[in-house]
Amino acid sequence: MTATPPRDFVIINANIHSLDPALPRARAIAAKDGRIAAIGSNDVVLAYAGRELPQTAVSDLGGKTVLPGFIDAHTHFIAGGFSLQSVNLRGASGPAEFVGRIAERLRQAKPGEWVTGGGWDQETWPDAPLPRKQWIDDDSANNPVFVSRSDLHIGLANSAALRAAGIDAATPDPCGGEIFRDPSSGEPTGILKDAAIRLVEAVMPKPSEADRGSALRLALAKAAAEGVTSVHDVTDWGNPDWSEWALFQQFRAQSELTCRIFARLPLIDWDRRRADMPAFLTGDAADPWLRFGGLKGFTDGSLGGHTAYFFDPYNDAPDNFGLLLPDMFPAGAMEKRIREADQAGIPVSIHAIGDKANSILLDIFESVAGHNGPRDRRLRIEHAQHLRQSDIERMGRLGVIASVQPAHLIDDGGWAERSLGVGRCQLTYPFRSLIEAGVRLAGGSDWPVAELSPLLAIHAAVNRETADGQFPGGWNPQQKLSVDQAIAAFTSGAAYAEFAEAEKGSLTPGKFADLVVLSDDPFQVDPATLKQIQVLQTIAGGQLVFERSES
Questions:
Q1: Which residue of 138, 144, 365, 425 has the lowest C-beta tally within 10 Å?
Q2: Terminal-residue alpha carbon distance, the chain
Q3: Is the pLDDT of residue 418 over 60?
């Protein structure tokens, strides 16, 4: 299904939440040339359609709920597409199931073929053991295997993959990474953290153009099925040839995009490829389907990998404060790149999870803004997961956007207190505190780290239920969002984060005709059932890009 040319439609008898304060509720809506042309009562919209769209069929939704199309503010979109084709370790209940799923895939693999996948989380297993290469070596003698943890910041390589990468007992830890070793022999256990993962990725076969195209088509179909009409992508992370950006351009040229892409290239590439950076354009000057969204960088790792960077050590690893990633080296490099990109008018968004990583990043943002002078820069912290109250307030003063992924707390809440302690977790995923400090939230998934499902994420933000069910009233319930606030993060908040609030985020005449039809009204259902709401239809640019079958 193609996304261009734009289409017209007329919808009546709908329960429309426009999210536009000027007309928050409506019964009918019409689009012309891919943009919203009329919204209001059935009579008003039908009168418009009779004048302007006399040949357009009228769809009667029978009272079904309509919202603006969801915007996911943080994805690894093509990686998500590949994840739909690889070993799925999400939800593996322990080592036995972890090993069994990999073994099943190995039975289908050709000799020498790399087997990849991910999604495992050892923190949910009894005693939380990190996997070891020995678990899978017997089944994988003929195949290199590399599988990522759910956060993408830690992975397991079997012996064949380690040999291919030249990793042995003598291999030093790379800057910003760690090779786990057996304490008695010094041999690698197979666990690699952050920059060490790149050693294996460097020798893995590169996917063909056809492979990447298939992955992108799967990702587009998945987005449409979840009501997602725009994504902010972390594009070409660790991929110096920018093949993902090229693939997005190819799909756009062929009118194959059914989801709008706001693509962010690696900040670390600023040093070597600044002359190649696309222009950052907004409004009418920007392509409506594919835009260069600026630069994305990293300060630290992840909580689950014990590489998120904290002021205080981990409770369960008292000598470990986390890691700063390669973007932070040499000293001052991060600030220099951000300052220069900012001077060029290119927005930046930076990954920070630990409280010290967030604080360091805010220091840099404040310095850059002071050096370059006032302007509408919309600096973003991706994750903003663990914060001090003083830094939450500083984010509000500086106008820094918090790009948050509520679904992560579903898993993290079951074990985070073991790593950080109860007190430090009071400002973990501090959504309400951020809003109270005047910080704008942009909601995302981090797919494939978590599911690409705005409704699941909204459920998580509102209920703060953990997967293990140990917090009946919600984990740190003082940080719950209202349904209105959670939905805003995945619509108007995410639109603002990409400088597109005049084009999307509400159902307002003149904006893109991007909308989702839901089985139930999220503002009316029991909040505990939000994740049970189904996407019935997704419309992007006036076109129907997904419709749930009735079977």
A1: 138
A2: 21
A3: yes
* pLDDT of res. 244: 97
Q: Three-class SS of residue 519?
A: coil
Check: CB of residue 230 under 8 Å from CB of residue 514: yes
CA nearest neighbour of 158 among 173, 139, 174: 139
Q: Is a pLDDT exceeding 80 seen at residue 255? A: yes
State which amino acid sits at residue 203: V
Token pair 């990793």: residue? 167
Architecture of domain 88-201: Roll (3.10)
% pLDDT > 90, the chain: 98
- Over 80: is that where the pLDDT of 551 sits? no
User: What is the helix (H) or strand (E) element at residue 416, kind and residue range?
Assistant: helix 416-420
d(CA 506, CA 229): 12
What CA–CA distance (Å, rounded) separates 336 from 107?
Answer: 49
Summarize pLDDT for 19-49 with one digit per residue, the tens. 999 999 999 999 999 999 999 999 999 999 9
**Residue 146, beta-bridge partner list:** 116, 157
Assign 168 a pLDDT band (cuts: 50, 70, 90). very high
The secondary structure of residue 314, as a DSSP letter, is: B
pLDDT at position 157 over 50: yes
Q: Using CA atoms, how far apart are residues 392 and 268, in angstroms rounded to an integer?
A: 26
Closest CA to 137 of 183, 113, 106, 171: 106
CATH fold of 9-69+511-547 reads Urease, subunit C; domain 1 (2.30.40)
Confidence of residue 238 (pLDDT cuts 50, 70, 90): confident
Tell me: the pLDDT tens digits for 175-221? 999 999 999 999 999 999 999 999 999 999 999 999 999 999 999 99
**Given strand 9-12, what is the order of strands in its sheet?**
35-40, 28-32, 9-12, 58-60
Any bridge partners for residue 155, and if so which? 148, 192
Whole-angstrom distance, CA of residue 170 vs CA of residue 158:
17
Class of residue 238 by CB neighbours under 10 A (exposed 0-12, middle 13-18, buried 19+)? exposed
Cα separation of 491 and 488, whole Å? 5
Provide the CB-side half-sphere exposure for 53 (13 A, CA).
22
Q: How is residue 139 written in tokens? A: 């089944």
pLDDT classification of 1: cutoffs 50, 70, 90? very low
What the block records as the tokens of 55 is 């040949």
Question: How far is residue 544 CA from its own chain's centroid?
Answer: 24
Q: What is the mean pLDDT of the chain?
A: 96
The answer to whether the beta carbons of residues 489 and 442 sit under 8 Å apart is yes
- DSSP states of 332-356 as a string? THHHHHHHHHHHTT--EEEEE-SHH
Residues 6+ apart with CB under 8 A from 208: none
Distance CA 312, CA 355 (A): 9
